[in-house]
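Hi, here's the filled form for the chain we discussed.

Project: internal
Contact: R.S.
Residues: 191
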Amino acid sequence: MATKKHILVAQVADKPGVLNRVSSLLRRRNFNIEGIAVGQTEQPDMSRMIMIVEGDDAKVEQVRKQLDKVVDVVRIVDITDLNPVSRELALIKVKATASTRSEIIQVVDIFRASILDVSVDSLIVEVTGDEEKLNSLIELLRGFGIREIARTGRIAMCRGGLGPLLVDESTRALKQPPKPPSSEVASSPDW
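And the returned structure, exactly as it came back:
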């Protein structure tokens, strides 16, 4: 079977250790996480986790089902084939001299990127877009000498009104861990 990059989007509880549990399950199943981004959502105490993994459809679906069983994972969806909007951010520190600075600025303008910092011997460029756009700009800037690159990894969202993670409030049945009775709550710190 052919492998491809899959975009898995999860709604998870905003608690310590959730990222570790999810990444550990993927590691145990021998998946390399090519990109991961986690951030707050519009819902209090919830985060959105976006993972890019490569594999065939059947293997990724099996892992998705296993991830859906993780206690703090409320819902996880493979949005690869749902025509998602996806973007990535990169900061690129490029060597610059008096003779190359204007040429670098022209390349940056062509890619609709921004220059965030200018120093005597370098520029920091910010670029947002799809993976191909970022890779193309990086390849062009390599000719000037790249000192440092920081990339966020891809974030993605489905087009249209109701996304695959959103559920009508009247039918919401969130998977939440059972809360212990107040008499059973441990008083020791959670190390």
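Let me know if anything looks off before we file it.
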